[in-house]
Amino acid sequence: MIASLNGIVKRYDSKLVLDYIDLDINEGQIIGLLGPNGAGKSTLIRCLTGMETVNQGNVTLFGDGKKPFQNKNKEKIGLVTQEISIFPELTAQENANFFAGIYGLKGEVRKRRVAEALAFVGLAEHTKGRAQNFSGGMQRRLNIACSLVHDPKFLIMDEPTVGIDPQSRNHILQAVKKLQRNGTTILYTTHYMEEVETIASEVVILDKGQIITRGTVQDLIRNIQHEERIKVEVSHPEEVSLESIQALPDVKQVIKDGNQILVVSSANSGHLDRILTIIKEDSGVVGINVEKANLEDVFLTLTGRTLRDGGSA
Amino acid sequence: MMRVLRTIPYTVIRMSRDYITLLLLLVVPIILITIFYFVLGDLKNQYGDPAFYDTAQLMTLVFQLFGGSIVIAHIQDDLFSPRRQRLMVAPMSRPFYALSISLCGMLYSIFLGFLLFLFTGIGLKVEWGNGFWVMYIIGLLAVLSSLVSLILIFAVKNFKLAERLSEVYGIGCIVLAGLFFPIPDYTVITFINEYLNPLLLAANAIGYAQSNLFPDAYIYMIRLGVGIVITFIIVFVLGRRKI
């Protein structure tokens, strides 16, 4: 077990921000912590890292529940802050060196880790460039490199892709996946559900200080989804055998609408391949569109509100 | 402790790349002192020495009053901004880190004072007297100003307000010293200038030493030292609560 929160309650004055949070984070996972702005994600991170004291409950880090925030445990944690927290006056290399130093890296190891961390985030060509001259995306990536330079076992990323270009965002998401493959456990908070769907091995949805659900993306969607709709645009609709498609198990309805065939089946029936095979025997396929539920729908179903703005759907 | 020591080179690099501070605390005084050098020319003071000497010495000391801005800017950036989170989760002592930033800022301020001392002494031939004593007094003044600025940043919540108050401290000392306009001879103001105003304490310590009146020079030096001890205690108490 990398980290565990048991019955965490956090209040700011009379405002309840975290309401009896129980969360276990196991080794090698990417936990996607999803929730609208103000859900309590950043507060949860502050409690998990010891930046905030909790009003009630226990935090355990690396099996240590007595002194979880002692330096021995802090050395194994990396934090990618929501706001860019690097030194703009220093070069990329100097920034990484600064953080390597405070995590106790010395000599050749320090030199090697600095080079590796900068290369990992795609800044190997910009080591001598000053952070203040970097684009927003490059600064975000340097922000991540500084959190990785000591090779943490547990990386906490607090909305690391806010306000950056799609290219840097993809770079960051790919880097996160690569980190997991190398054995790093990651807690990734965001309010972009597409990101969580792409990278998370498990999703925790937080709303109004409470965990409202958790599980794999597929599990969460399966729990709320009852059917999927496959729309196939064909070249010769009159020649498609609708009966063959209708005969497939779990297919509820097949409708021909102009040059489109709409197939309604139970959720996750896995029929896409078979439907395409049947249609291709009789006609050409021009286009295809599968309408599936996503995490936005999960959040909407569970809270009656949209994820992005927390407003009513 | 070792981890904090490893941060010092980077703190020094950051300070040296803060060009605005260099401009305000080094370039501006050099320009102003040079202008006074030409304006005052051969004008003599009441003792028959060039009047420019007094002006150059006071200008050098005046800018030490604002040296605290270096320390508070870096303390604010590292310990009261989003960067604080990253340093809070790092396995490093924050109070020691704050101390290292403060010491670096003080030394940097003293170094800028040293450059002004060299410029006026060597470049403009100002008679300063014993150079070691002058640098010692400039050092005390820079340390005291930095400590006052630290008190302000620890005592108020708003960084901008702390910055403004540190400017009030600097300008207030200059006004009370009578450099902007003559100050009336009130007992309270005389007491402040004699015992509390660091600008005049430093100026008197240097002035008496120049005249070989070292017992008097020591008295003003000790008053500066007492100020440092008192402000350090306040910084220690406030800093423990805030960092």
List keywords for this structure.
heterodimer, A: 313 residues, Rossmann fold, Alpha-Beta Plaits, 2 domains, six-stranded mixed β-sheet, 13 strands, B: 243 residues, mainly alpha, 11 helices
Overview of the molecule:
The complex is a heterodimer of chains A (313) and B (243). By secondary structure, chain A is α/β, with parallel strands linked by helices. Chain A has two domains: 3-221, P-loop containing nucleotide triphosphate hydrolases (Rossmann fold); 227-291, Alpha-Beta Plaits. Helices cover 34% and strands 28% of the residues of chain A. Chain A has helices spanning 41-48, 71-74, 92-102, 107-120, 136-148, 166-181, 193-199, 217-224, 242-246, 272-282, 295-303, and strands at 3-12, 15-25, 30-34, 56-61, 77-80, 154-158, 185-190, 202-207, 210-215, 227-234, 251-257, 260-266, 285-291. In chain A, the strands form three sheets. Chain A has a six-stranded mixed beta sheet with strand order 5-6-7-3-8-9, with helices on both faces. In chain A, strands 11-12-10-13 form a four-stranded antiparallel beta sheet. In chain A, a hairpin with a 2-residue loop joins β1 (3-12) and β2. Chain A starts with a strand and ends in a 10-residue tail after the last helix. The model of chain A has no long low-confidence stretch (mean pLDDT 87). Chain B is globular, with a radius of gyration of 19 Å. Chain B contains eleven helices and no strands. Chain B has helices at residues 2-16, 19-40, 51-64, 68-79, 83-89, 94-123, 131-155, 159-176, 187-196, 198-210, 214-242. Chain B has 243 residues and is mainly alpha-helical. Chain B has one domain. The A-B interface holds A 46, 49-51, 71-72, 74-75, 77, 79, 81-87, 89-90, 94, 97-99, 101-104, 146-147 and B 2-4, 6-7, 10, 13-14, 17-18, 81-83, 85-92.
